[in-house]
Request: fold
Amino acid sequence: MMDKIKISPSILSADFACLDRQIKRVERAGADMLHIDVMDGHFVPNITIGPVVVRHIRRVTDLILDVHLMIERPEKFVDEFVAAGSDMITFHIETISSSKFIVQGSKLRKKGIKVGISLNPDTSLNKIKGVLKYADFVLVMSVFPGFSGQKFIPGAIPKIRKLRSIFRGDIAVDGGVSDKVAADLIGAGATILVSGSYIFAAKNVKQAIERIRHAR
Ligand code: DX5
Ligand code: ZN
Reply:
């Protein structure tokens, strides 16, 4: 039986002035987790959310907090994001050596945190092959990280298919995910769909979520 496809709305597309209500809205609509984009203005050309915001989000929702670290020297900050209540932490292979990822990953896994490795659209799968057995999931970027609302890069689909043939864990995909591409992503082997603008712009959020979850 095919496992349920999990949907992780990215709050980067939410209205930050009323984040509480925006989170409740996707929670009620059946989101499985909440994707939190952490950006430092160095690894990516944008600055977003720090541990203090994660800590406050933790107080208003029971959703799994899926924290995507797009920062340089992530090992320096990761403990703060864990203390703030993260349930899943994603590192970018462009920002951390394989050996440091393995050390950080095993430390987090001992605490019950799920650990992911992510790669940019122009980073080869070869770069993460050596760390796959230390990762619970892989986050395949289908845009260059930095902003929500960008156009989906189709090269992510064959990348997911290839990854699926060598990796048994969850495969998440992030960037430009909508009802137009969801079927192809699921067909290629993705099991977690991260989606920002498509979900938060929807009039009927529940319908939007179910449309991508069941796309085939
Ligand atoms: C991109 C972020 C994504 C983004 C997704 O740098 O990592 O999570 O917010 O937003 P959409 O779905 O609008 O591309
Ligand atoms: Zn993200």
